[in-house]
Amino acid sequence: MRFLFKTDYEDDIRLFPHSGYIVSYGILLAFLAVAPFVLSSYLVSQLVFVCIYATVGVGLMILTGFTGQASLGHAAFLAIGAYTAAYLQQYNVPFPVYFLAGGLLTGVVGALVGFPALRLTGIYLVIATISFAFIVEEVLARWESVTHGNEGMRVKTLSLFGQAVPQNGPAFYFLCLGVLILTIIGTLNLLRSPTGRAFVAIRDSETAARSMGVNVSLYKVKSFAISAAITGLAGVLFAHKLSFISPEMFTLQLSIEFIIVILIGGTFSLHGAVLGAIFLVMIDPFLTYLKDDLPVIIAGIAATFGADSITAGKIHGNVAAIASANGLKGAIYGVIIVLFVLFEPLGLYGRWLKIKLFFQLFPLYKRATFKRQKIYVKSERNR
Amino acid sequence: MSYFRAENLSLHFGGLKAVDSVSFAVEKGEILSIIGPNGAGKSSIFNLISRIYPPTSGKIFFEDQDITEQPAYEIAGLGIARTFQNIELFENATMLSNLLVGRHRHSSTQLWQELLFLPSVRAGEKLHRRRVEQVIEFLDLEAYRDKLISGLPYGVRKVIELARALCSEPKLILLDEPSSGLNVEETGDMSFWIRDMKTELGITVLMVEHDMTLVNRVSDRVIALNYGRVLAMGSPSEVQRHPDVVAAYLGA
């Protein structure tokens, strides 16, 4: 067990509390640096999606995890970033400019969404953000002079300082990774400054935040704007990764995927956004695998237990029909959310902390350490 | 002119007169207690001062400035801090970050500076931390710096809430039942701290309290309320002997 002996206020401000963090993050960084050269191109492509989803996850974490404002409209912010990139690219605007413009424009739209959201909380806010997402989807489909409607827009290969950066090459991977790391560092900086503390204060008690001098409305709008801007930046990368965008890519399902990212990762820490993104992106190849191989496996098992070839063929057909049924992915996501909310509300990162503590305290770990209990002191609060 | 003044302050919820044209003044550097039976309108007066409710009528003055129309978040900026009867701490944060939120009115850094964590932000953080440490030392909270509020006992939370209010370096502090839920020993500590706030930190105290031992020990003056109206005002012993107050508590 390690005891941190603090001798300076700096000890509570620095990002890495002790040398162990530097070692483990160093190893992680080294792995990520060599990844595109040793992993298969499919896995590298998935890693790019992890980076993009994690960036959105960090943005959503600021809003939902730290400010306590739920949003099911982040697919729309992603769309605004993506379409800004595709539109400006037609006029040969260089990448750094339209990258920042995508973030900025999305941030402004986020702030505008933040204003009506000031009067809404909980489920009503969720409904308001869903409606916003529908509005954006509709606008993208109808505003054909700018967005080419349902035909979609082709996004040209990214070019940075005259160099082409193909979306499947290692350079694009490093670009996405860099954006993710900078976003995380910026967010961590924010969280250790007055603004981040004001966000957390609003999440836990608006009345108390207000009586401590926090302008709750202003900070909610700020939180919306920052969250949207980060998502917009991710949107620019998303557009390049897919090289083609159309309105039906940015549906409610995508917003739900972002919620899954932070819910499964753990809504109280930025680690959660990254872990959730890894989980969500990596579950996709797993589902594809199930779709292709599960019928064969089940039919094989049935054959081993003496089913004749006709019955085995039927079983194969039935399982294949279920595995490729429409909306199965959505159903599986739903089940995953329910299971996590019920059994692991702190998400993957919460589970990791428990495992870590188990080894730190071994053999003194007590089962009741993380037993959830009801708290009774939270009565008739001012809301 | 008084330091703090409430003039004909009223708060009506439909036909219910929670506060009914109450006027009082607080002098700089005094400890004024408001007593009264349950539902007398004591906490409502606090909620009017900190602008959680807008008053139905009446005016509030602080340092000769009319603060009746100020938005709630600017009240702290004027130097008025408060605690809550039912503890409104930020439950899923550590005590340190709770106290640092108390410093919010003194922070002046911009968003872009914070994103980059420029030296000015770092210096500000250290300054805030130094002030917070002074309050921690004043209230003996050294043991809880990195503890989450949700895991702390009620008595400690009560003190942390007082600490958070003190971190904003207020000129006037509103204490809503500082001793509720505390045992005899903790109430004793609380009375010393309230006295020290007045003598050492020069803070004016306005407090709502039921525990008459605490009221007698610390207050310079007492106001007794019932049904939203002022029954009596004066020194603790005067108010307790006042026939209307006796009638309100014991029944006529």
UniProtKB/TrEMBL annotation, chain A:
The organism's place on the tree of life at top rank: Bacteria
Entry GO MF terms: branched-chain amino acid transmembrane transporter activity
Membrane topology type: Multi-pass membrane protein
Pfam family, one: BPD_transp_2
Subcellular location: Cell membrane
An annotated GO cellular component: plasma membrane
Name this polypeptide is given: ABC transporter permease
Organism of derivation: Bradyrhizobium valentinum
UniProtKB/TrEMBL annotation, chain B:
Domain annotation ABC transporter: ranges: 4-252
InterPro entries: AAA+_ATPase, ABC_AA/LPS_Transport, ABC_transporter-like_ATP-bd, BCA_ABC_TP_C, P-loop_NTPase
Pfam family, one: BCA_ABC_TP_C
UniProt keyword terms in alphabetical order: ATP-binding, Nucleotide-binding, Transport
GO cellular component: plasma membrane
GO molecular function: ATP binding; ATP hydrolysis activity
Coiled coil: none
Functional note: Involved in beta-(1-->2)glucan export. Transmembrane domains (TMD) form a pore in the inner membrane and the ATP-binding domain (NBD) is responsible for energy generation.
Protein's recorded name: ABC transporter ATP-binding protein
